[in-house]
Write a sequence for this structure.
């Protein structure tokens, strides 16, 4: 379903998601702050012409610029407003009827060198109905008057934005006796006349008067809350003013979460190069496939006519070459990236705002938990945090985070605080997993480092190119990448202390603890020294990776939010492996981790700690204060979960294969959701099937999960080709990668220069 003209949809259709949340059909509406409104309307002149309903809209509009404005103007007179700091002028002109006076005022802007307003909002009819007691003669005169005004408005529409506001319905039961003649039947007749006459003579699309009809839909839902049956409640007129701001300002300000009225961004130089590369890969793969197919046909077994026996081919079917596999991967990736671009950069599919309700978050959570429990299987090994268990842990956490994002649950603070723990748990696993590998294996070779860095960053680098986004935009990948390098540096720097060496002399354990203390000191220092942190990451080329909107503050905030949890993961791995080596824990199938008494005590403490943290998180009132405490206390719930999951032997011996499957592609799921499940860079929801929210989620989720799984396989295949085990070959590949990034930086600099 094509997105179509989102401006037209914004002005004419939509629905309420909640009591005060308006959702335009097919696009997302940005909620403008007063600073943004000022930046958009700087040096602009806006005019509202009409009756008391237009005056209401005028006040709601200027309150977006200055919230302190009070509705104290003359009721039946002109009201000026000026913001001198931004040189904005907004005027309300009292013309309650469409007549000669209104025509003369509009005509004055079309003549000579008179400065024309940049935005003109016009609308009137109820006074004509009231004064003439709803007579048919008044309607006929209204048609004549609007016919004379229409060409003038169309002429102004060539250089200005002109909006004709259709009349809202009334709540007839609440109308006073003097307004009883204003019926919805009469209003519909006046609106029909206005729509039919406006733009009837204009063939030029630029000279069209925009009909503001969405106000009617909003009024139909809210007019019963009106104080007098005629004028809209404040929340409804504020919605109308916000729609008006979106129609005009979105194409200027280009907010990420305001897709209505935004043109499709032009292709950048890097995007064009990427498109050519993927196209050549597809063509190359097809050519090689055809050549191999023809060779196979030539060597295919055929029947000997003389003997009637089948001859076997002289040459067997050739194995897939490295080049063919490489082209096949890029061919698939090119098709997938086309889908990414169409979903979140081209105006092909619709997008909608998120709207949080408790049911939209908790019902899917319960559903996936039931599914996860249903797919319970025995583990291959019963060690603490074995591979199947960590995959399961990643899987259910990722699914909860996905539901959290699509439901817009970040607005509900207790849910936000628990999701913060899940993100911290990912980083805890990063510390635990990488520390365990280096400690046990003692493998600090370049091959291991390159493999990890490639698997973590490949998809993000491709998306940075295709979707024209900075590396730091996908904040989680830079976070785990930097922490991996910190773990590597901590353990690889002299003296290299590994388990094999430490077993020979216990003093090496103290040496490792000393390293961990030094790491903790550095983390503590950087977390309280924003200046030092920003200096480190402001040096080129780090600045190119970690800057977002021209500074590294966002990166500092993200790093600081979970600054201790990787250290906690490393420390936990060290203690656990030490206990395991000394056989102080029992990891047999069905056996409790410790003696029965110790296990019961630890289990009780873990459950109490887990619930205590949840109660504290649920009672949070201030996000900033809770975020300050989070880095120090999140480990409590993480450790409590690990102990609850691993102390009872029967619990440790089973896992959910459903969650584990998702856990294996958790990184791809987290990144892909930005563009092909959510929309507008996670600010909204992708709509493939409009009008059927549940069916849309099912279809988009199926495609999203399949794509994430395919990208995971592509990444694994490419990792084997791009990062070989042979050191000399690996060095050549690293030089090629360095050349690739140098070229990327060169084209990026050219791109930035052309933009400026």
């Amino acid at each position: 379903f094509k997105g179509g003209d989102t401006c037209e949809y914004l002005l004419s259709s939509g629905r309420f998601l909640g009591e005060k949340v308006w959702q335009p059909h097919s696009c997302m509406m940005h909620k403008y702050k007063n600073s943004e409104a000022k930046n958009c309307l700087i040096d602009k002149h806006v005019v509202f012409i009409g009756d008391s309903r237009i005056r209401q809209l005028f006040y709601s509009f200027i309150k977006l610029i200055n919230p302190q404005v009070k509705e104290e103007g003359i009721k039946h007179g002109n009201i000026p407003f000026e913001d001198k700091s931004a040189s904005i002028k907004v005027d309300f002109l009292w013309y309650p009827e469409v007549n000669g006076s209104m025509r003369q005022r509009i005509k004055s802007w079309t003549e000579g060198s008179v400065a024309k307003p940049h935005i003109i909002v016009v609308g009137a009819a109820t006074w004509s109905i009231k004064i003439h007691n709803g007579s048919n003669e008044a309607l006929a005169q209204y048609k004549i008057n609007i016919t004379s005004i229409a060409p003038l408005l169309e002429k102004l529409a060539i250089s200005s934005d002109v909006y004709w506001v259709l009349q809202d319905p009334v709540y007839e039961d609440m109308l006073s006796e003097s307004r009883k003649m204003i019926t919805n039947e009469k209003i519909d007749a006046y609106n029909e006349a206005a729509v039919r006459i406006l733009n009837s003579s204009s063939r030029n699309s630029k000279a069209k008067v925009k009909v503001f009809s969405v106000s009617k839909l909003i009024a139909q839902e809210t007019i019963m809350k009106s104080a007098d049956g005629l004028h809209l409640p404040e929340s409804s007129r504020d919605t109308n003013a916000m729609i008006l701001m979106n129609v005009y300002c979105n194409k200027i300000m280009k907010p990420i979460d305001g897709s209505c009225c935004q043109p499709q961004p032009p292709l950048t130089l890097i995007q064009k190069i990427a498109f050519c590369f993927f196209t050549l890969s597809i063509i190359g793969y097809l050519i090689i496939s055809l050549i191999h197919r023809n060779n196979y046909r030539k060597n295919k077994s055929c029947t000997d006519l003389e003997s009637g026996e089948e001859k076997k081919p002289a040459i067997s079917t050739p194995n897939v070459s490295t080049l063919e596999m490489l082209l096949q991967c890029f061919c698939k990736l090119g098709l997938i990236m086309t889908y990414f671009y169409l979903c979140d950069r081209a105006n092909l599919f619709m997008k909608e705002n998120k709207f949080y309700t408790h049911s939209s978050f908790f019902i899917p959570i319960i559903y996936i938990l039931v599914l996860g429990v249903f797919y319970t299987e025995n583990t291959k090994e019963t060690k603490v945090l074995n591979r199947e268990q960590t995959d399961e842990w990643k899987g259910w956490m990722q699914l909860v985070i996905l539901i959290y994002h699509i439901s817009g649950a970040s607005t509900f603070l207790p849910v936000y605080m628990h999701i913060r723990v899940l993100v911290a748990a990912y980083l805890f696993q990063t510390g635990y997993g990488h520390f365990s590998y280096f400690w046990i294996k003692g493998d600090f070779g370049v091959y291991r480092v390159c493999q990890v860095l490639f698997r973590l960053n490949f998809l993000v680098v491709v998306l940075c190119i295709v979707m024209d986004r900075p590396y730091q935009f996908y904040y989680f990948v830079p976070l785990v990448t930097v922490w991996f390098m910190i773990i590597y540096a901590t353990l690889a720097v002299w003296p290299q202390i590994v388990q094999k060496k430490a077993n020979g002399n216990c003093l090496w354990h103290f040496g490792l603890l000393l390293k961990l203390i030094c790491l903790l000191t550095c983390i503590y220092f950087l977390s309280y020294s924003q200046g030092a942190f920003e200096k480190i990451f402001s040096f080129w080329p780090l600045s190119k990776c970690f800057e977002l909107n021209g500074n590294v503050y966002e990166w500092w905030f993200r790093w600081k939010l979970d600054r201790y949890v990787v250290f906690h993961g490393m420390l936990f791995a060290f203690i656990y492996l030490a206990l395991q080596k000394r056989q102080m824990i029992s990891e047999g199938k069905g056996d409790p981790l410790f003696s029965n008494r110790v296990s019961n005590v630890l289990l009780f403490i873990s459950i109490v700690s887990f619930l205590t943290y949840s109660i504290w998180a649920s009672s949070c009132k201030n996000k900033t204060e809770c975020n300050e405490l989070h880095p120090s206390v999140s480990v409590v719930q993480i450790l409590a979960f690990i102990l609850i999951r691993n102390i009872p032997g029967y619990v440790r011996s089973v896992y959910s294969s459903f969650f584990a499957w998702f856990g294996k592609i958790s990184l791809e799921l987290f990144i892909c959701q930005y563009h092909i499940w959510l929309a507008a860079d996670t600010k909204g929801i992708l709509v493939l099937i409009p009008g059927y929210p549940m069916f849309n989620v099912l279809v988009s989720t199926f495609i999203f999960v399949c794509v994430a799984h395919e990208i995971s396989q592509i990444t694994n295949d490419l990792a084997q080709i791009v990062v070989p085990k042979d050191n000399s070959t690996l060095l050549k590949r690293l030089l090629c990668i360095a050349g690739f990034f140098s070229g990327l930086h060169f084209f990026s600099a050219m791109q930035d220069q052309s933009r400026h």
About this structure: The chain has three domains: 6-253, 349-723, 727-755. The CA atoms of residues 590 and 649 lie 4 Å apart. The mean pLDDT is 92.
